[in-house]
Amino acid sequence: MSSPISPTAGGFTPTGTISTPADRRRVVFATVVGTTVEWYDFFIYAQAAGLVFAAIFFEPAGPGIALILSFLTVGLSFLFRPLGAFLAGHFGDKYGRRVVLMVTLILMGVSTTLVGLLPTYAAIGVAAPILLIFLRILQGISAGGEWGGAVLMAVEHAPKNKRGLFGASPQIGVPIGLLLASGMMAIMALIAPGDAFLEWGWRVPFLFSVVLIFVGYYIRKRVEESPVFVELAERREETKTPIVQLFRKHWALVLIAAFVFAGNNAAGYMSTGGYIQNYATNPAGPLGLDRGPVLWAVAGASVGWLVFTWLSGWMSDIIGRRTTYIIGWIALAIGAVTLFPLVNTGEIALVFLGLLILTVGLGFTYGPQAALYAELFPASVRFSGVSISYAIGAILGGAFAPTIATALVQSTGTTWSVAFYLVGMAVLGLIATLLLRDRRGIPLGPDHEAEQAVSPIYGMSRS
């Protein structure tokens, strides 16, 4: 399964091990499938929050407030992502990436399935939204721990000149998850239209998660542990308190890396967080479009997100992570400005076009993220660093983006306020990117901790 490594391969020493090509293919496949399952579960909730949860769990609050409460449950889970990231980072840096990925997969799948079995407010009263919130919190903990382990398994197995491409493999699992979630919801909108969708149709995509748990578990169980962690374990160099070391030495880097992701995540949650779905289909809103075509438009646009995510990961190996991100921020700002004018036409083809244009910037500021993050942090605290930066960035960016967008439109009466908000988040992401040096190709193994500990932040010698 593994073979001796040369001194030039990825920066490891001859005493270490490296993945064979077969190992690498297995890791790529497993990370794509695993993250697809995780984010299908996460996004199916967000889709339902925009389409049905306000009516069946929060209806007594009144239409406007019920929708805000429904979107708040989407954002609430983000507040618990850092807990998942702390736990996964601690145990991932001490016991390995693989075991954490197995636990997060099961936790996410069980939580999602149970949402599909929940009674409504009409059946059990206030206990219904309380249980819904509890299960969403479990989803947030799982999502907080999932991403760091998946990207490190991919990047740490990769040749150093292909980290961007390999790191894009778990990233494309996110748009695939959105594609599946939107597709499942659209199919159920056809099978169970109108009131039937509110009564039982929305539950089927949640219950389908049971099947995905078994598929993801089987595939991930066959993957070898990250060679970087294997070498750390063989040398008995696991950090005893990785989180303490991370914040003591690298706190500024964590914050800057978080803002890099925040700029992307705010725009991404216009579709993945269910905002566009609700805005376009709400009978009381300005458009009142049919549910099914809008869901298919989101599903179609997610294919574009997948393509641009993969493309940008590959490009970042050639032109650098930083340059790829700068291109992405410009594209994301353009996408934010064009999104609502196209959606507001009420034409499904133009709704799709607006979402597709947005995915150019989303992909280019998401594909290189795995490699960028992995190259920022020293090996001994890398799982903690990438997981916690990602979780904090999700809170600053996507956690309450649908809620903020809803409140902005209700208070200003125009979607231009949302566009300005998204452009502002893209500018923050650009500034954070410009503060970081490009560390493409830096050795990732434990022999190079001193080199890795030199701060990638301009103007700082150490983190």
Kindly summarize this structure in a few lines.
The protein is mainly α.
What this model shows, in words?
- This protein is mostly helical and 463 residues long.
- It has helices at 21-56, 63-79, 81-95, 97-115, 121-124, 127-157, 163-191, 195-201, 203-207, 209-221, 227-234, 242-268, 275-281, 291-319, 321-343, 348-364, 369-376, 382-396, 401-412, 416-434, 449-453, and strands at 2-4, 17-19.
- Strands 1-2 form a two-stranded antiparallel sheet.
- The longest helix has 36 residues, at 21-56.
- It is globular.
- Residues 1-18 have low confidence and may be disordered.
CATH class label: Mainly Alpha
Indicate the low-confidence ranges by residue numbers.
1-18
Termini separation? 36 Å
Strand order of the largest sheet: 1-2
Multimerization status:
single chain
Number of strands: 2
Order of helices and strands: EEHHHHHHHHHHHHHHHHHHHHH
Overall, the morphology is: globular
**What is the share of helical residues?**
over 70%
Radius of gyration over alpha carbons? 21 Å
Q: CATH homologous superfamily, by name? A: MFS general substrate transporter like domains
CATH topology: Growth Hormone, Chain: A
| Proportion of strand residues | under 5%
Identify the CATH architecture.
Answer: Up-down Bundle
Number of domains: 1
Main location: membrane
InterPro entries: MFS (IPR011701), MFS_dom (IPR020846), MFS_trans_sf (IPR036259), Sugar_transporter_CS (IPR005829)
Subcellular location: Cell membrane
Keywords: Cell membrane, Membrane, Transmembrane, Transmembrane helix, Transport
